[in-house]
Input
Amino acid sequence: MVQDLPANLTIFSFDDLYEKLDSFEDVYAQIVEKILELGQRPAGVLYAVPGHPLIAETTGPEILRRAREMEIPTRIVEGLSFLEPTFTALGLDPFPHTALVDALELGMAHHPPFPPDAPALIAQIYSRDVASEVKLTLMNLYPDEHPVKLIHAAGMENQIIEDLPLYEIDRSPHIGLLTVLYLP
Output
């Protein structure tokens, strides 16, 4: 995709920030500041993220909020989020009760923040450590053997759906940046 962009564009990447800085919060803060700085130029800036810029994306909403305060014009070009391919892979309609939950927030909680009889989709299960923290929180409410699904790379050629008991989610060899957990 990048090779298809006009040759006169200057492309910035923020990958190095993830390696240099100690926390996601610091990374996101620097990204927001840089985008706002570039957005004040007459040429403006185009900020692209995979998926939808306002769904499970920290920087998008903050850039939008701050740009409005600074009277920097913005336009959102919506992309397909991870939600649509995930629910397609599961063959489910998320309405009316599916909770959408961030794995990092859930992993820091003592108990899940949603009713036990409601299904949940837990995003950002990007490592076994995150999966383990989520598992421990969920096991405060659900039995170890509770059936769950790990969905990896939903909608892609290498999509994998694993049906397994809750206690095994952190043992999956497929966990990566495109992994979500479905709790029926």
